[in-house]
């Protein structure tokens, strides 16, 4: 069976990155490593956190249609390498994309069967504290991120699921439950069930 494309998105500071790290530790997902033109932050490793590219390198990849989606976020480009993610899905892996809202909406157009999960902060005050506590933003970029977060919350209605990230463990459990439920959806499994000539349904669905 094909894997799921799970898109985890939401405003900056909602905790998408922390949730994705925790999910990766708990389960066998394939997490896409995005390309970006922004500079690495302290401790970030090329090829692990991001593929750090120059603007020229990024534009070349756009020209050869190398991205599933890309977006300009706070003055830098971010994009999801296409072929590796699609290959992983074809091979049965569940693929996680942690991307911004513009990117998520583009993926929804080209891949509507994806699972679109919006991560919300418990409150706007908490969101502000999280952005400040990261310590990686200048006062201007902090204000920009906070203002966009306010607007971005409105996009929740375009998603399939909303998960409030109050405690990371709880948010991770909710996402794992969503994934289990998605794997059981009739529109995803009906062909397998109907093709199961020998009646070995369990193996068809779960192996
Ligand atoms: P940061 O600079 O804090 O790592 O990321 C800034 C924003 O870019 C975050 O909202 C993050 O989810 C988003 N982002 C990271 N990778 C991608 C990507 O491949 N595509 C898009 N559209 N957004 C991304």
Secondary structure: elements and pairs:
Layout: E1 5-9, H1 16-26, E2 30-31, E3 35-36, E4 51-52, H2 55-63, E5 67-73, E6 76-81, H3 82-90, E7 95-98, H4 101-110, E8 115-120, H5 124-134, H6 139-152, E9 161-164, H7 168-183, H8 186-195, H9 201-206
Parallel strand pairs: 1-7, 1-8, 2-7, 3-4, 8-9
Antiparallel strand pairs: 3-6, 5-6
Bound molecules: guanosine-5'-monophosphate.
Residues 12, 16, 34, 38, 69, 71, 73, 78-80, 98-100, 102-103 line the site of guanosine-5'-monophosphate.
What does this protein structure show overall?
The protein has a five-stranded parallel beta sheet with strand order 2-7-1-8-9, sandwiched between helices. A four-stranded mixed beta sheet has the order 4-3-6-5. The model has no long low-confidence stretch (mean pLDDT about 90). With about 210 residues, the protein is α/β, with parallel strands linked by helices. It is about 45% helix and about 20% strand. It is globular. It has helices at about 15-25, 55-65, 80-90, 100-110, 125-135, 140-150, 170-185, 185-195, 200-205, and strands spanning about 5-10, 30, 35, 50, 65-75, 75-80, 95-100, 115-120, 160-165. It has nine helices and nine strands. The N and C termini lie close together (about 10 Å). Strand 5 (about 65-75) and strand 6 form a beta hairpin. The structure holds guanosine-5'-monophosphate. Guanosine-5'-monophosphate (5GP) binds near residues 71, 73, 78, 80 and 98. Guanosine-5'-monophosphate binds near residues 12, 69 and 102. Keywords: ATP-binding, Cytoplasm, Kinase, Nucleotide-binding, Transferase. One of its GO terms (molecular function) is GMP kinase activity. Essential for recycling GMP and indirectly, cGMP. This is Guanylate kinase. It is an enzyme of class 2 (transferase).
């Amino acid at each position: 069976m094909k894997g799921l494309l799970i898109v985890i998105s939401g405003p900056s500071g909602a905790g998408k990155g922390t949730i994705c790290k925790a999910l990766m530790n708990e389960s066998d997902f394939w997490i896409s490593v995005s390309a970006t033109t922004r500079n690495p932050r302290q401790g970030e490793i090329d090829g692990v956190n991001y593929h750090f590219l120059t603007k020229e390198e990024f534009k070349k990849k756009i020209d050869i249609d190398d991205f599933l989606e890309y977006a300009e976020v706070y003055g830098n480009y971010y994009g999801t390498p296409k072929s590796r993610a699609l290959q992983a899905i074809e091979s049965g892996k569940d693929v996680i994309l942690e991307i911004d809202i513009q990117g998520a909406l583009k993926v929804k157009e080209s891949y509507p069967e994806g699972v679109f999960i919006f991560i919300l902060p418990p409150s706007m005050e908490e969101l502000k504290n999280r952005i400040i506590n990261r310590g990686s933003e200048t006062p201007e970029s902090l204000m920009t991120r906070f203002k966009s977060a306010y607007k971005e919350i409105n996009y929740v209605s375009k998603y399939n699921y909303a998960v409030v990230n109050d405690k990371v463990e709880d948010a991770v459990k909710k996402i794992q439950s969503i994934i289990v439920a998605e794997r059981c959806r009739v529109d995803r499994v009906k062909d397998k069930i109907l093709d199961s000539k020998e009646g070995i349904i369990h193996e068809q669905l779960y192996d």
